[in-house]
Amino acid sequence: MSNQLFETIQQLNLAPLLNRGVFGIEKEGQRIDGQGHLSALAHPDILGDRQFHPYIGTDFAETQTEIVSDQFDNTIEVEQQLSALEQVLQASLPDCDYLWPLSMPPVLPADETQIPLAHFTKDVQDYREYLAKRYGRRLQMVSGIHYNFSLDSTLLARLYGEYYHDQYAQLSDFSDALYLQLAQNYQQYRFVLTYLFGASPIAEAGFLKAGQSAPDHPVRSLRASQLFGYTNHTAKIDFESVSAYVTSMQTAIQAGQLISEREFYGSVRLRSHSLASLATNGIDYLEFRGFDLNPYAITGMTQKQLDFLHLFFTYLLALPKQAGTLGERLQQGQAVNEQIALENPNQPSSQQTILVQIMADLHQFILDYHFEPRFLAAWDVMNQQVLDYQLTTSYQLAQAIQDHSLTAFGLKQAQSMKQALLAKPYQLQGYTDMELSTQMLMFDAFQKGLHVAVLDRADQFVELTYQKHHELVKNGNMTSLDQLVSLPLVDNKVVTKILLANHGMRVPAGAEYTDVETAVADYQVAFGQRALVVKPKSSNMGAGITTFVTRPTEADFKQAFQLAQAYDSRVLVEEYIAGSEYRFLVMNQKVQAVLERVPANVVADGRLTIEQLVAKKNDNPLRGEEHLTPLQNIRLGEREQLILKQQGYQVTDIPARGSQIFLLQNSNISNGGDSVDVTDEVDPSYFAIAEQAAKVLNLNIAGIDIIMPNLYQAYNPEHPEMAVVLEANYNPAMLIHLFPMMGKRRRVTKKVLELLFPEM
Amino acid sequence: MSNQLFETIQQLNLAPLLNRGVFGIEKEGQRIDGQGHLSALAHPDILGDRQFHPYIGTDFAETQTEIVSDQFDNTIEVEQQLSALEQVLQASLPDCDYLWPLSMPPVLPADETQIPLAHFTKDVQDYREYLAKRYGRRLQMVSGIHYNFSLDSTLLARLYGEYYHDQYAQLSDFSDALYLQLAQNYQQYRFVLTYLFGASPIAEAGFLKAGQSAPDHPVRSLRASQLFGYTNHTAKIDFESVSAYVTSMQTAIQAGQLISEREFYGSVRLRSHSLASLATNGIDYLEFRGFDLNPYAITGMTQKQLDFLHLFFTYLLALPKQAGTLGERLQQGQAVNEQIALENPNQPSSQQTILVQIMADLHQFILDYHFEPRFLAAWDVMNQQVLDYQLTTSYQLAQAIQDHSLTAFGLKQAQSMKQALLAKPYQLQGYTDMELSTQMLMFDAFQKGLHVAVLDRADQFVELTYQKHHELVKNGNMTSLDQLVSLPLVDNKVVTKILLANHGMRVPAGAEYTDVETAVADYQVAFGQRALVVKPKSSNMGAGITTFVTRPTEADFKQAFQLAQAYDSRVLVEEYIAGSEYRFLVMNQKVQAVLERVPANVVADGRLTIEQLVAKKNDNPLRGEEHLTPLQNIRLGEREQLILKQQGYQVTDIPARGSQIFLLQNSNISNGGDSVDVTDEVDPSYFAIAEQAAKVLNLNIAGIDIIMPNLYQAYNPEHPEMAVVLEANYNPAMLIHLFPMMGKRRRVTKKVLELLFPEM
Fold first, then answer.
1. What is the distance between the alpha carbons of residues A576 and A534, in angstroms, rounded to a whole number?
2. Best mutation site among A14, A162, A485, A700 for testing chain B: the one with the most B CBs within 10 Å?
3. Which domain holds residue A287?
4. Average of pLDDT values for B395-413?
5. Same domain, A140 and A279
6. Which residues does chain A have with pLDDT short of 70?
7. Among candidates B118, B112, B116, which has minimal Cα distance to B66?
8. CA Rg, chain A, in Å?
9. What ipTM does the predicted assembly reach?
10. Interface touch B524/A13, C-beta < 8 Å
11. Do A331 and A374 sit in the same domain of this protein?
12. Measured between CA atoms, how close is A417 to chain B, in angstroms?
């Protein structure tokens, strides 16, 4: 199956570009309450100003949310962003609000004027009033998915440049021809999608206008039908050419059949940023509008549906020239579509033969053009639905109808979807491969209404935009708020200490050495009998560090020095500071959160073994492995067992009730340590120390590690040893404050956004 | 040899702390002209406001410069900073100005009122007038070195804390006792230093006052003598105790013998920041004032002299209690000193026996307390001078006297010192181990009058301070002027390109891959027949990069991809852009310099072989090895020979006259490439592109690499390929602009300082 276009694609070896394109999705949906009625609540305030929110707004009714994705060159990223937006929207709803998962609205108020129009500016409100009057409020409550598509620009450019430049005066003439062909064929063949995606078997009682009689059986898609759907009956829009399309649209508007092009409810629209631009610059993309919400998909459409549509649109371009005039073809397509839309999903389709034929054709098309495997997988799912009508969504929905209503089904589905989306609040759906703190920052950014672009996913590089204000964020809080030189500054522990000490702060005494002999001579002199730490200058994760609680022998010291030198030829010898370690998170010279970090431990209950206590503690859903959760599991490896042994324990022992058993010495949360928010506990006098340290180092966003013997006792400047500043971080972990093991959760990612966008 | 103090030091194992202390130097010197007369020119304007300059100012006369070092805990850093300051001072002098290297002034005007007082504020000027009147302008023209010294604070603290706290009420009482003992013993034994360091054998004609008759032979040190030196004859200052010192000073001031303590010209002063503070808080440090300039040392005193003084002061503390009253001891010391100062350096000293005895004693002291090797080396040099008077500076100077004058010697020495200091303008003396660009920035900072602190030498971390404004600089231009996030941004080539492209700039097309199969599929489609580069995402130095000038075979492409993956699992496949590469250095949104980079090459003269041409080109003193010079030598290694071979050459060939032979493909200056400043050549329309790139990336200080086919042709926005932005740098090399191979030198380090300190 091919035509001249696809022969050329084959010849030019361009088929791989068919896997790409430009994709964007808009998804509408109704908010309901716990009884399945329209929500009486306003659109959530926490989502900010819906007029400017780039992703989440309202459509016709106050209860009708609309999610709009960005454009991506593949559907996978579209689906990822939609998942995230869906999570953000649902997490922003009050407890008792849900999202109705079906295209046909839930049971509406008997008096349609009780359907609340969206709260909006005057001009938008006026348009809504106009629509309410013209179509009735009920019809406007129908929801669905719009799928925006354009072809890959390299594909178009190479086809035009290497073959079609003789046939078309300019590139846009060529692409207009392709898009027109696609739009025409789509109208002829959309019945395939109505069969596969149809998911509006009934209308709830009272939806239909007086005089309309509902079919006496469920259907595949009321919404996709001419009779009950959401269409313009008077305006006749001409798809013969772009100019015909524009002219017919203008005529319909002048005749008062449409108030503007946005009132054209056809199954596909030719799009540019305006009608005028369409006439002069040609088609930018096609907007396909025919799709029912899939109530089994959180985003209203599965990845396989998105892929299948992409494949199907491409296939429509590859069809040979169709017989008949355009009018005849569209009329025929419309008739078949109407038949499929209104047939009973509890039976095979009357169009089974042609559906099977088309699917077989599509299969060959996939093989001929070597589409990526995901397209074959999508085809396979759809093909099974063609072969077995009981696999269609419309059939399944028909089974779910109780008392001529889908209220029970819809409500249950809405509740379970919300529950699923809220189950892991430390994750952002669609981006779960990224660092958790970046996921949380993106969650907050989506919620606040910032534009979010992931510039480099593996590198945690995100661009946030509000109007014309762009900000880059790396790893959650490396931003424009801090200075370039702070990075090497804080990485250099010696320089950090010099600056802190120059400003009167207490830091561990010590010096830097490259030569073991000098270090030996010095440590004996400078530290006397005091405890020591020997560590490589530029190690972060605890590697190569030796702590001597009593003065080491020269041999032991040398060994420690050599160990450190395995990591960095420059070695620091510092006094060891005893006491609990606290992480102060400072932003904009104010402490945002204080966390106490306790090494991995269990507290015995006198009944369970250490092994069992660890397993029990690891049961906390916030604990997990490989940084996929905010807290990490306590392990029982060699290191932990050795430490237990030093305390006289084995993992099978049952320690005395109430005793706290430590499994590690270092307090890193990433090694299974406990995190306890003590922001409201710590004496406020210590805040000034952390804030001063951040200021001295010119850090806006800083993690300051301080050892304090007693967090409750007010700091006394005459005893600087009450707060010894260990080190600073320019990219402090936020997750530990967002989800501590104990104590209050501090949403510090929001503070980053506030600082980056003070104008919001 | 020991006393109770040193027995305690031995017992507490504190001897290593004797190698430290706190040290600072002040050095005066006269500016002269090319005839050896006092310079008629004012202090150089380029050194800024001398009232605020922390290092370089003027003393009594306009011609009398004064260099003041910071305080360091070792003399090595003092000497390093003094070398740097000396270079900065001398490089700031006009061509015809020099620094007279001797303590006794050059020939002075017959009419002493012709000696110009330093241009200063009214109150300072008044003080100078007073001194001129009281001592005569001539005497004030004598120059020398002041050596400020205090003991290591850990040494004092540990001695006091672990032993002396029973004997002294507080630490400062203990340290006062030590400093007093040192100051007393110094006055008793300074004759040793007068012998060793004496370097003022004569006064030039007309220097001595009417009535003074010069000795009829050269002497060791006129300046150190009571008779001809620079002393107060009436004020009697008491060194018995701190309070006696303060009281006697106050009495002398009240009696009009001194206008203030700063007029006290004794050989040592007890110092705190004020006389009042001295009385209440004790002695901070001792100021030793007795030292002649060493005319053979660029800094007026060699490292060995600095070390010897440190050793000698320590030794004075270790002396057993001296016999006799303090008065007797000082009188005796004064007498011996006078004798040595005024004896003929052409003969052995009358005090040879005692000098030998003291040196032997000092040797034992070094051994007893295990001083660092440099102290033994210093001792050795001084000991030889004691053993052989012909090795003393005073003897050598006596030999240099011509016609009762040292004018010829002094002028020659001044000129050769200046020449030596200016020979390598790309280096800063004392800091030649640091990166050249940091050396230049520090040069400019010293010259401008910023306080310069090297916080981490190996790490190129410098703190610059003007009044209370501190700025950190790493690697010459990583500063507070730039944003933290710019560092990972610019390190990420993909994100950099996304941002540049988003703002309409032309960048090499391409994509990032981790999977070779996808990359293979893509490159064949996306690049057609165009040239390609395959490179690891995060490599800087050219490693792992393969360029294909014609479309590669799949096998070759895969091999290149695997090579790149050896450096980074993420690989970029980009179009190859042909053309010359230019580095635009942008600061504060303005292009400061543009450099054309040409791969290592020679131009044949038709006579020399390639080998000889390379050797000749490498003769340029700016070329060298290991980044110790601004340009690097062209090598003739395997790589270069291979490239020659590909062009059909051997190193022994004599190519046709005028032909340019390239020895490498990449244009890195560090691989022997040529650098040509084209700032004034390149069409200014390209500036906007570099400036926009810097702005898009939010870089204040940026190196933007642009490929332009023709630098003379104005940029046409309709042909964006006229300027393809390759990449950006947040820490751009400045040296290549400071010292290009050809074209104008651009002092861009000064611009960094201007931007950091706009208030200056």
1. 9
2. A485
3. 4-231+266-423
4. 97
5. yes
6. 1-2, 539-542
7. B118
8. 32
9. 0.88
10. yes
11. yes
12. 35
